[in-house]
Amino acid sequence: MSGLGTWAVRRLLLGGAQTVAVVLLVFALTEALPGDAAVSLAGDQPDPARIAAIREAMELDRPAHERFAGWAAGLTHGDLGTSLASGRPVTSYLSGAFGPTLLLAALTVALLVPAGVGLGVLAARFEGRLVDRLVSAVTLGVYAVPEFALGVLLVTVFALRLEWLPPTAVGHGTDLLGHPAALVLPVLVLLSRPVCSLSRLVRAGMIDALASPYVAQARRYGIPGVRVRYAHALPNAVAPAAQQLARTVDWLLCGVIVVEALFVIPGLGTVLMNAVTERDVPVVQGLAVVFGVFTVVLNLGADLVAHRFAPRAEVAA
């Protein structure tokens, strides 16, 4: 088997082990949540007999290891369980709320790559000069502002004071594409920190690549500067940037809760918050497993990209 094949098999086995660990960890953490779901579902004045009936109906009276075995077996064929609060399949929650979250993440990534890479290359090209110092100062300053605070600031300025954009997505439901103005502020908030971190990473990688011997040799051969930067230096800065991009996409899907809460967007973050409030354990478990498995897949993909552009670098997500 070739070196790439051996490496790919090793990474796939590692991804499988990580997926199993995610499933075990999610179940253990949700089991450790305080309170009793049966008591919550029984109402304000729960009757012991009603609580016992709910626990039996929801199989909450079974030992934890038996419930875990049944839940894990269901995961293997796509069954994430049934909501304790509504009786609906957990997959129906995901299918209904996945669209807005995916739309926000896709728009953010589509803008993140050209903006982050472009700013990084621009700063590296003018290293130590005014443009470099300006880009570095702005990205560092924006990165230091928490998403929630930046979102409140943008809403105050552009929605309440200037009235250019809607402050929330209330009234639009899941049809956000039909109301693009409602997407501007959430996407700006989601872009703020990832653009800063990606551009600084690309800048550092580009500076190292442009100072390398092979770039100097290319310049001695008379290769144009644009080709040197984009065909020779940039690919060597892509490996760590790919890892950062994978972590960013993971954060966009798993950490979009704050943005969805701030702008009242009915996505996965809102579903997760409601499930935690209602102590709807199967919904929390299902979302956590989806997020965890997606994280594993993203990191495997980032490893593949990094290995493709920098095969000598043992980069692990």
Can you walk through the features of this model?
There is one protein chain. By secondary structure, the protein is mainly alpha-helical. Helix content is 74%, strand content 0%. The protein has 13 helices and no strands. The chain has helices at residues 3-31, 37-42, 48-57, 64-75, 90-125, 130-143, 147-161, 181-210, 213-220, 225-254, 257-262, 268-278, 281-309. It is flat and about 85 Å long. The relative contact order is 0.14.
Give me the strand/helix succession: HHHHHHHHHHHHH
Beta-strand content estimate: under 5%
Alpha-beta content class = mainly alpha
> Using only CA atoms, what is the Rg?
24 Å
Fraction of residues in H or I helices: over 70%
Distance between the termini: 24 Å
Question: Could you name the ranges where pLDDT drops below 50 across 5 or more consecutive residues?
Answer: 312-317
Tally of alpha and pi helices:
13
In total, the number of strands is 0
Instruction: Note the main sheet.
Output: none
- Overall geometric form: flat
Mean pLDDT: 79
Put the structure in a nutshell.
This protein is mainly α and 317 residues long. The protein has helices spanning 3-31, 37-42, 48-57, 64-75, 90-125, 130-143, 147-161, 181-210, 213-220, 225-254, 257-262, 268-278, 281-309.
